[in-house]
Amino acid sequence: MWREKQAIVIVTAWNPNFTPASPDENHRQNLALKTCLQDVGKKFEEILAFWPGRKGFEQSFAVAEMADSEARQLCIRFGQAAYFKANRGECVELVRMGPEVFAR
Question: Among 4, 20, 23, 37, which one is most buried in terms of CB atoms within 10 A?
Fold first, then answer.
């Protein structure tokens, strides 16, 4: 599925607006995100993402060929403060959102 050096965006819908959610709520939010990705025809894989310096993980999606503008819109829609960008064989970049996430 992934091409060499292909850009990948990593997004999740867990714990929106920095608010810990129940496992059931996190599952519902991620299911809505998955449906959104499917509806627009994105290629993705379900993954477990780890935040540096934090315990645990978040169920997430590695999405191929997603523009920054699309990732930002998903963050706003699902109340996420950031997303990750990566290229195969290259470092991951954390892209932090601004206050627009919490103005919804």
Answer: 37
pTM (2 decimals)?
A: 0.82
Query: Which residue did the predictor score with more confidence, 75 or 86?
Result: 75
Tell me which residue range forms the domain holding 16: 7-103
Task: Return the closest-CA partner of residue 39 out of 74, 68, 13.
Answer: 74
Q: What total of structural domains would you count in the chain?
A: 1
Q: Work out the pLDDT band at 92, boundaries 50, 70, 90.
A: confident
Q: Which residues, in sequence order, are CB contacts of 28 under 8 Å at separation 6+?
A: none
Q: In what order do the strands lie in the sheet with 82-87?
A: 44-49, 58-64, 7-11, 82-87, 93-96
Whether 3 shows a pLDDT value over 70: the answer reads no
Say if 1 falls within a structural domain: no
Residues in a beta bridge with 86: 8
- Summary mean pLDDT of the chain: 84
Report d(CA 69, CA 51) in Å as an integer. 22
Question: Any bridge partners for residue 8, and if so which?
Answer: 64, 86
